[in-house]
Write a structure and sequence with these properties.
Distance between the termini: 123 Å
Largest sheet: 5 strands, antiparallel
Number of helices: 2
Radius of gyration: 38 Å
Structural class: alpha+beta
Helix content: 25-40%
Strand order of the largest sheet: 5-2-14-8-11
Number of strands: 14
Order of helices and strands: HHEEEEEEEEEEEEEE
Shape: elongated
Length: 266
C-alpha cells in the first residue's frame, strides 16, 4: 500500500513539473527573435499563396471569357458567309427572272433567313441603282399569306407596286439606298386568331423601330409601324421578325394586305 502511495506521489510530481516546463518553453519561444521571425515568414508566405490562388482563379475566368468570345466570333463569321451565299443566290434568281420575262414569278413568297450584314461590294449583287435620282420611293405587298415562325427572318414583300429609283428588291425584301438622305419607312402586318408577331424595321443590323400585335380568338386585324431615319448610300433597309415573339401566319389577301413602303424625305 505504501508503495502505491509513493508511486502516485511521484507521478503527480513529474506531471506538475512537465506542465511548468512546457509553459516556460512556450514563453521562451515567443521571447526568441528567431522563432518570431520564422512565424512572420510563415504568415507572409501564407498571404503570398492566397494572392497567387486569387490570381489563378482570375486567369481561369479570363480564359473562359476568351473562349466564349472566340466562339461568338466564329459564329458571326459563319453567319456572314451564309449571308454572302444567300445574296449570290438572290442575284442569280433576279438574273433568271429578267431572262424569263414570260414567266411570272412575282406571285411567289420568299421569307429569307436573317443574317448579319457586311457592307462592301456585294451591294452591287442586288442590282443597286447607280443613278443619283432626286426621287426615291417604293411600295410592296405580300401577294399571299406567309408562314413566319422563325426569329430574325426577313419578310420579303414580293409584289412590288411602286419602285421609283429601282432600289427595292422583292426577292430579298431589301431596300438598298441609292443615295444618302432622310427617309420615311412604314410597314403593316396583318394577323389573325392565335398568331402573334413582333416585327422590326432594320437599317443594316440596327433595329430602328418595332411593333407587336397579338389579335387572339377570332380577331383579324393589323398593326403598322413608321420611322423617319437618316440612311446612307448603300445601307440595307428591311423588315424582319423579332427575337422572342414570332408565331403564326402573316396574312395578306384581297381583304387586307401586309405591306412595306418607303420614300426619301430630304
Amino acid at each position: 500500500m505504501a508503495w502505491l502511495m509513493f508511486i502516485s506521489t511521484c507521478i503527480c510530481f513529474f506531471f506538475n513539473v512537465s506542465i511548468h516546463v512546457s509553459a516556460e518553453m512556450i514563453e521562451n519561444l515567443y521571447d526568441n527573435p528567431d522563432f518570431n521571425m520564422a512565424m512572420q515568414k510563415i504568415e507572409e508566405m501564407s498571404m503570398i499563396m492566397r494572392k497567387q490562388g486569387e490570381h489563378i482563379i482570375l486567369l481561369e475566368q479570363k480564359t473562359i471569357e476568351s473562349q466564349n468570345t472566340a466562339k461568338k466570333q466564329n459564329d458571326r463569321i459563319a453567319q456572314l458567309e451564309a449571308r454572302i451565299q444567300e445574296l449570290k443566290t438572290g442575284c442569280k434568281a433576279e438574273e433568271n427572272t429578267s431572262e424569263n420575262s414570260g414567266k411570272d414569278l412575282s406571285s411567289e413568297i420568299f421569307v429569307t433567313p436573317f443574317r448579319k450584314f457586311i457592307r462592301k461590294e456585294r451591294l452591287s449583287s442586288l442590282q443597286r441603282t447607280t443613278q443619283n435620282t432626286e426621287t426615291v420611293a417604293f411600295f410592296a405587298q405580300l401577294s399571299s399569306h406567309t408562314h413566319a415562325f422563325d426569329a430574325h427572318r426577313i419578310i420579303a414583300f414580293d409584289k412590288t407596286i411602286t419602285n421609283v429609283g429601282h432600289a427595292y428588291h422583292h426577292y430579298s425584301g431589301t431596300f438598298i439606298a441609292p443615295r444618302s438622305g432622310v427617309y420615311v419607312f412604314t410597314w403593316t402586318i396583318r394577323l389573325y386568331g392565335e398568331s402573334y408577331h413582333t416585327t422590326e424595321l432594320m437599317v443594316n443590323n440596327q433595329i430602328i423601330n418595332s411593333v407587336y400585335y397579338s389579335p387572339h380568338s377570332n380577331v383579324d386585324g393589323g398593326v403598322s409601324g413608321t420611322a423617319v431615319v437618316q440612311v446612307y448610300q448603300g445601307d440595307d433597309v428591311f423588315v424582319r421578325t423579332g427575337a422572342n415573339y414570332h408565331f403564326g401566319v402573316i396574312r395578306s389577301d384581297s381583304v387586307g394586305r401586309s405591306s412595306f413602303a418607303g420614300w426619301i424625305l430630304m
